[in-house]
Each structure stands twice: as C-alpha cells, then as structure tokens.
Design brief:
Helices cover 10% and strands 37% of the residues. The chain is built from five helices and 24 strands. The chain is mostly beta strands and 321 residues long. It is globular. The chain folds into two domains: 194 residues, Jelly Rolls; 101 residues, Jelly Rolls, CATH 2.60.120.10.
Length: 321
C-alpha cells in the first residue's frame, strides 16, 4: 500500500465537512446550530446534503457531532448501538421519553455506550465549540433514527418534515412530501412503552468510562472498553480498545478484521511496508484487514487513542434493564 492509498483511508480532523441540515431538528431553536459529520459509512443522516468521507463500512459507522455552547441534539434513539467519546468540550447527556429520566456530564476523552432502545439527547455545556465522535453499530446503522414524537411535531412548526421513507423535506426551500410519500408516523403511547426510562445509577455504572480511569487502566496494556469481556460489557457488533503510550509497542502486527484508529491525544506514527503517516488528534484512520503495521507515539507528552474493530456479533439491543 502506497502512502497515497493510505491517505485516502484517513479522514483528517481539519478536513471534516459538516452538514447543518442532517436531521429533523435542524431548524428547531436551540438545535439549529448543530453540525453533523459522516466519517465512515452513511450513518443515519436524513439529508441528501450530508457529505460522506469514506463510503465503505467495516460493519459499523463512524460519525461526529459539532455544536456551539448551549446547542442541543433532540431526543432520539437507534435500532443499533451508539457509542460516543468526547473529543472537545464538556457535554451533558440526558435520556428518557421527555429527557428527564437521568443525565450524566462527560468531559474530554470520556466514553458513553448509550443503551439501544433508550431515548437520548446531548448538549454542549462548555464555553467553546465542542465535538463528540460516534460509533454506530451495523453497516446501515439500523436503518435510521427513531425520534421522540414531540421532536417531529416541533420540527414541523419550523418547516421540516420527515417522510416515511426517512428523507427530510424543507418547506423553507419550497419542498413538500412527494406524491405517495406519507409523513413519518409518530410513535403511539402503546409503542412508547417499549422505550425504558433507564435509571441514572445503572447507566453511569454500566455504560460510562472516564478518560483518566482509562489512562490508568491502559498504562501498560490496551484497555478493553466496549466488548463481551470489556469494561463496558456489550456485544454491539464491534469492540473498542483504549491505547496509551505505555500500552503498545512499536512491533509490527496485523489483524484479520477492520481496524479503525481514532486519535484522542498526541501524534501517532502509523508505519507499514510501503510507507508511514502521522495521525493527529481528531483524525480517523481505517486500517484494512491483513495489513502488517506498527503504531507508536512520535512526540513526547500525553498520547491516547481509541481503536475499534468489527466482530461477528449482531449490532443488536444493549439495554438489559
């Protein structure tokens, strides 16, 4: 593999292309300044305007959300796993039918394996523009977003309609639902009973890991963060490891699975027969299966990254009650 071929498998943080009309709440006051990014795979965007950096999926999708202070992402859920880690800023995650069942505050490097089937939202509560990176289970990420009914009703008042085909239509652009396409139906009260009001204690205990705890746990070997035998035990169709300067050597290794590297801190040198590249904070790199390579920090100071690999597990439900 040439350096140019590898570079095509890297999405640089500074080259991320945002979409500000990706979801149904894009015009709703308080949520209308969101920027969404699809890094690997199409994710669950509802807008044809969304740019996809790398279309081929490794069994899961990688995305990101950027928001200025006080900007919220509206209550929704997914049919497959959704894992976030905070790259920049301070974020409040909240959940439940009305968003008042519980909440947790995450800071840079913290990771949250949000249970499937639970309505969730998040808000930048820091003082600067913030960025959270996400991993969504499944090649097609479960076929879209399931919105709390009030989100769809609020959006309609501000000109955005979601069709039953999962596509957004903007009346501010003169768009309307095409002939034969009905509006996305709201969940009934009976259907809403299937979405649990998960208690804060259980969520924080079983689904959240803190950055500085991971730095300690990965001091001399990679820390398994999400997976069947990991800190956050789950089988969402992928595994996530946390790696620091002290937990990986410069030895060459290879895997028969896809390996996605997402840098949190520091600068990392990725080398293989044919070349090397430097990965910087916020960069995402898709290492192909079978490629012999090595990975090591190339400057002094704090160095950490998340490594995601696909598994044979179905990207199914995670909330166990």
């Amino acid at each position: 593999m040439t350096p140019q071929e590898m570079e095509a498998r890297i999405v640089r943080y500074g080259e991320l292309e945002p979409c500000r009309t990706a979801f149904i709440d894009a015009h709703t006051p308080g949520s209308d300044q969101k920027e969404n990014f699809t890094i690997i795979g199409a994710g669950v965007t509802e807008s044809p305007d969304q740019h996809v950096h790398i279309k081929d999926t490794p069994g899961f999708n990688i995305g990101a959300a950027g928001q200025p202070p006080k900007c919220k992402n509206s209550l929704h859920t997914h049919r497959t796993a959704e894992v976030f880690f905070v790259l920049k800023g301070k974020w409040r995650f909240f959940w439940g039918r009305w968003g008042n069942a519980g909440e947790v505050v995450l800071e840079e490097g913290d990771i949250f394996n949000i249970p499937t089937g639970v309505f969730r939202g998040f808000e930048n509560i820091g003082t600067d523009y913030g960025m959270i990176m996400s991993v969504l289970g499944g090649d097609d990420a479960g076929g879209g977003v399931i919105w709390a009914p009030q989100v769809i009703e609020d959006a309609k008042e501000h000109g955005l309609m979601l069709g039953e085909n999962g596509v957004l239509y903007d009346s501010k652009k003169g768009e309307s639902l095409p002939e034969g396409i009905k509006p996305m139906p709201l969940l009934s009260e009976e259907e809403l009973k299937a979405y649990p009001e998960a208690p804060t204690k259980a969520i924080v205990r079983d689904y959240v890991a803190r950055y500085w705890d991971l730095m300690a746990l990965a001091a001399d070997e990679p820390c398994k963060v999400v997976g069947e035998s990991a800190l956050l035990k789950d089988k969402p169709g992928f595994e996530i490891d946390f790696i620091t300067r002290g937990s990986i050597s410069s030895e060459v290794y290879s895997q028969n699975r896809h390996e996605i590297l997402m840098v949190m801190r520091g600068h990392w040198k990725l080398s293989w027969e044919g070349g090397n590249v430097v990965l910087n904070p916020g960069d995402t790199c898709a290492v192909p299966p079978g490629l012999a390579h090595s990975l090591e920090p190339c400057v002094t100071g704090e160095a950490s990254l998340y490594r995601i690999t696909d598994t044979d597990d179905p990207a199914g439900l995670t909330w166990q009650g």
